[in-house]
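User: Could you check the structure of this?
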Amino acid sequence: MPLSSYAALGDGRSVALAGADGSIDWWCVPNMNSPPLFDRLVAEDTGGCFVIAPTEAFTVERGYRPGSNVFETVFTTAGGKAKLTESLNSGRAGRLPWCELARRIEGLEGSVDFKVRIMFGTHADSICPYLARNDNATTFNAGEVVGLVRVSSGVTLDKEDDLEIHGSFSVRKGDRELVALLAGENEPLVAATVEEIDGRIDVSDGEWRQWSDDIGYDGKFGAEVNRSALALKLLLYSPSGAIAAAATTSLPEGFGSGKNYDYRFAWVRDASYTIKAFLRIGAKAEAKAAFTWLIKCLDERGAHVCYALDGRLAEDVKEYDLPGYRGERPVVSGNQAAKQHQHGIFGDIFETAARFVADGHILDPRSGAVLARLADLAVESWRVKDSGIWELSELEHYTMSKISTWQGLARAVELADGGHIPSTFRDRWARGRDRVREFIDANCWSEERQAYVFHPGSDRIDASLALAVRFGFDGHERMEKTLRAIDRELSKGSFHYRYSGVEEDEGCFLACTFWVLEALALLGHRTEAEERFAAVLNALDTGCGVFAEMIDADSGEYLGNLPQGLTHLALIQTAATLSGEDIR
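Assistant: Sure, the predicted structure tokens are below.
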């Protein structure tokens, strides 16, 4: 199934992906980074899934409820119409202490017969799910997950064994049925009633609407910004405040490339950009929670590229014997990026702190001390080669990494001058900032290419350099020429590849396109940027409003993990800039 056909459901802890065929093909329980209970997304023939679909041929009309992450699908068959409403439920007091995946079916016209199929994942045959029966309920057990199935009176379960549960029902106009799963990890379960679960669908919808109504964004492209904000909210892991880069693992960035990665971790870069996006739309509680988590990780674990959602370091990569999405291997958990050195973390965290205080908020003494130590590290290490923003195995003096170090030190000096962080080594930071700038000017600009290049001695172009405009680096002329070089050499249709030479291995990186368009607007080409932004949104309008990491510019097919936070936050930043808001 195309990735664009999946909608994302979430409860602040886990995310489920629901396809246009009525099947939930991905759900990690109880957390986004737990092993999947449903994994048909990466094992089409043998993976776990939760299907509710008509028994005869059907067409669908689908979409989120306005301002909500509750999703609706209208099935039309020869015999009638019925609506499926799906939610990972919350309660009136917030996230439930268990996972509750609720699916309500309502008859709209005529009569529609439905099948129900629940197949539990086996973690690549490393566990053996089983059913257990007692006086109160029949429960399913899958590894450390225990759960139960709740169905309304009109649903008949005609098969219940250790691996699969099958059922059926029919709805006519006015009928209403429900099938739901309640689950937890090594914990007692509350056996909620069908009526309670059904009611919480609408409670959840109301909570989502209230949250999105409180977003303080009234600029251009409001509907798209609101939907992207709701997608980002799904990636906020509420137990800790961490922001996952995406909710999935191992979805290929290009067919045949082997570029399949686990994004269920919190990158300093992605978290920092998301915090800024939340601040720009007035989501202060989410921004504060994520910023607090980030500072805590930097303090307790040291400066790393990414962390697990609970704050630990990312585990090593482990490969599983699964066929992968559309046969694309490998399927993995874990990520090696945490072991890399990337100068980008300096710019990311200091830009976030600068935006935080620019909005009138306060840095506490511990946070100030952590940031001061990070500025010291930036001064000490900026001459070292790193893996760059794209996490490459080849260590180089990547231009974007040097710009990020300059950015971090520039913001550190500003924060010290404003009394927000200790200023003991403020002058050293300022000298380091200027030396980094001198290095970039002397080594990273190519007169021949008339652009900043990937790294000194290279003739390749890097689309991430578009971010330098937002960061306030350079002036107008060199960045204008660099942007035009990016457009000339890295664009494919409306979209852009990450850097020279990757077009054979992967799709266009959606965030890069938004970065380029935002930079054009900031350099004075607002009309051009707005027209191109509208064209990009139109080209992306092929699914449910949940965007992946990349896109095949020829076919329009999504590539990479989803929902991809970097894509959605870059959309928000660009829309806000096109609306004339302050970039800091």
